[in-house]
Amino acid sequence: ATMPPLLAAIANAGRHGVLVKSAVALERLGSTTRVAFDKTGTLTRGAPELAELRPVPGLDADGLLRLAAAAEQPSEHPLARAVVRAARDRGLHLPPAHDFAAQPGRGVSARVDGELVRVGSPAALVPEGHPVAHELERRGHTAVVVVRDGHVAGVLGITDQVRREAAPAVAAVTTLTGTAPVLLTGDNHAAAARLAGAVGIADVRAGLLPADKVSAVGELEAAGRRVAVVGDGINDAPALAAAHAGIAMGGAGSDLTLRAADAIVVRDDLTAVPAALALARRARRVVT
Ligand code: ADP
Ligand code: MG
């Protein structure tokens, strides 16, 4: 007996490295008309590296890094892992983090050596702006601010490499849907625009909190598009769930994100996304 076309399409997606959760999920992928990509961990490798340490006068580079890394120890965020790795590489001894809390899309807070330490985006921690953060962002870094007991202790500059296959994947998605993809990111506008230019995305929406990503998807869908959101982070879970279709990058994806998705990319390769969309479309033509 031949396999029913839906099952054949799901099996085929599996061979391309995409786990499609159900027949309904396949239908959603196949009827997608616009794709929204997250940046960090989706279009970038998600392996950011610490590039600069800019402590305030009176604190040295290791002191700043030790403070930031201690607070970030419990965090799963790619930026947090880069900070902790850099501290370990320098042989720094990290005191424990107490009362740790993460604010998705903003940063973390913890008590270190009895002091309240916050590590996160300039938008969240220095809304009035900060010259060093601005300088780093203009140069394409993600700036991460460290605040100790209410005072800025310094700024970290972090860079993340674009995935080699990001530009071809974006081009394939553009051809397939006939619509320009969108970038939705919590990162700053300068870093986002630089990356978007490198991968061929013109529509950039930056500085978005998780709820803003949901509103952005709502706007795109109100304009008559059926949107598939591709993301990896816990900050993408609400948008993945709200969109017509949700695609999670499995590599570093959080459980919540995997649960919210219709499909999971289990191979560390973004071209699996256009491949899955293409065969979901074909399956739809066969069935209907
Ligand atoms: P993206 O949408 O690009 O995947 P996120 O929404 O995860 O980015 O994060 C948005 C911004 O929030 C980051 O660029 C960073 O400035 C800040 N941020 C979030 N989590 C952390 C963390 N654990 N440590 C430092 N900064 C963080
Ligand atoms: Mg991400």
From TrEMBL:
MF terms in GO: ATP binding; ATP hydrolysis activity; ATPase-coupled monoatomic cation transmembrane transporter activity; metal ion binding
Coiled coil (UniProt feature): none
UniProt keyword Nucleotide-binding, yes or no: yes
UniProt keyword Transmembrane helix present: yes
Main location: membrane
Keywords recorded for this protein, A-Z: ATP-binding, Cell membrane, Magnesium, Membrane, Metal-binding, Nucleotide-binding, Translocase, Transmembrane, Transmembrane helix
Family: Belongs to the cation transport ATPase (P-type) (TC 3.A.3) family. Type IB subfamily.
Protein name: Cadmium-translocating P-type ATPase
Species, as recorded: Prauserella flavalba
